[in-house]
Amino acid sequence: MKEVPNEQKKEFGQKVNELKTLAQERFDTLSAGFSSKGSEEKYTVDLTLPVAVNRAGGRHPITIVRDEIVGIMGRIGYVVAEGPEVEDDWHNFTALAMPE
């Protein structure tokens, strides 16, 4: 505004004010569309629902086959035994009364 000559400041100010008014009207029109009651009901999110988990990737084929085998064997009466993978000497020899 300080670079505009004094004779044109009144006209320039009116044009700037018209532009500001037009921009404000356009903004009000657009923001009214976002805050209308119908659009709020359409896009509300229920925060009490559990979050949907996006499972990226897939299971390894060996894991799939192992789970199928465990399921089949479980249906005919077998169970998966949990325990240490490596036993000590006592469990391998002494408890079985085998000479070392």
Summed up, what is this model?
This protein has 100 residues and is an all-alpha fold. Helices cover 53% and strands 0% of the residues. The protein is rod-shaped and about 115 Å long.
What keyword list fits this structure?
mainly alpha; 100 residues; 2 domains
What secondary-structure arrangement, pairings included, does this model have?
Elements: H1 9-34, H2 37-42, H3 61-75, H4 89-94
Largest sheet: none
The number of domains is: 2
The helix-strand sequence is HHHH
Query: Count the strands?
Result: 0
What would you say this structure looks like, in words?
- With 100 residues, this protein is mostly helical.
- The protein folds into two domains: 6-42; 61-94, no CATH class.
- It has helices spanning 9-34, 37-42, 61-75, 89-94.
- The longest helix is centred in the N-terminal third of the chain and has 26 residues, at 9-34.
- The radius of gyration is 38 Å and the shape is rod-shaped.
- The mean pLDDT is 84.
